[in-house]
Amino acid sequence: MTYQAIAFDLDGTLLSSNATILESSKKAIKLAQQKGLEVFIVTGRHHTAVRPYYVELGLDTPVVCCNGTYLYDFASDRVLASNPLSSVQVAELVSAAKAEDIHLSVYTRDAMTYETLNNHFTKLLKWVESCSEEVRPNVYQVEDFQQFIDNDTTIWKVLISDPDVQKLQNFCRKLPFDQVSAEWSWVDRVDITAKGNSKGKSLAELLQIEGISSKEVIAFGDNFNDISMLELVGMGIAMGGSEDDVQRAAKRTIGSNNDDSIAQALVELLGL
Q1: 3 state DSSP class of 191
Q2: Domains within the chain, CATH numbers bracketed
Q3: Strands 235-238 and 252-253
Q4: DSSP one-letter code for 15
Q5: pTM of the model
Q6: Are 38 and 212 contacting, i.e. CB atoms less than 8 angstroms apart?
Q7: Where is the signal peptide, in residue numbers (predicted)?
Q8: Which of 9, 162, 191, 222 is catalytic?
Q9: Is 195 exposed, middle or buried (0-12, 13-18, 19+ CB in 10 A)?
Q10: pLDDT band at residue 187, thresholds of 50, 70 and 90?
């Protein structure tokens, strides 16, 4: 099979447990680029939280962000396609989550915001401070999310998190799924976006723009929000330790994100 592109999820996949890209993966990606393959990042992250890795890899392709909520082009700082939440939806989500004492983060057009710190954002801010200033993600605290609702600010997603997974599951069961989509992006975090958004749908749109058949794409993922992407492409690859549903959606399962498994798979599939 001839492949034209590779799509990578970040957390739990291309990134190791300490949030770095393995040298073996970087070398394999560079060799793939030299063979003419395009490399795409397909992530639940905001684009400013992608930038450090995007620059590290020397990419120039659009990025699928916030689980397919928008396609972002770094070169022009332009959103190529999007389906954000409405202000009414954001207001309802914020109110409902606060009533259940569930931690919230609101992802706006240009930043990731929070009202109160939790363990996740404490770790995130520590990573942000470790990034070089020129690629540092935009994360900040706000007094009240209501300012975004009142100003009709573009909101890509609302992230909810809680150490009590059952609490999150109960909250998600009550969501209006005729209006929103919910994707588990980590064991204790759920990304809520406008209905219909998914990594697979947005990647398909990006591939159409680029003139690439989905069957000529290799994709790597590890979580539930990657299933639509893994099912879309010609070679969907699940990381070792993924949930059974994720592995079933993939054509093969490889080793851990902390091992050289991505590099080994690319060497085999691309003859690097």
Answers
A1: strand
A2: 5-82+198-270 (3.40.50.1000), 87-194 (3.30.1240.10)
A3: parallel
A4: B
A5: 0.93
A6: yes
A7: none
A8: 9
A9: middle
A10: confident
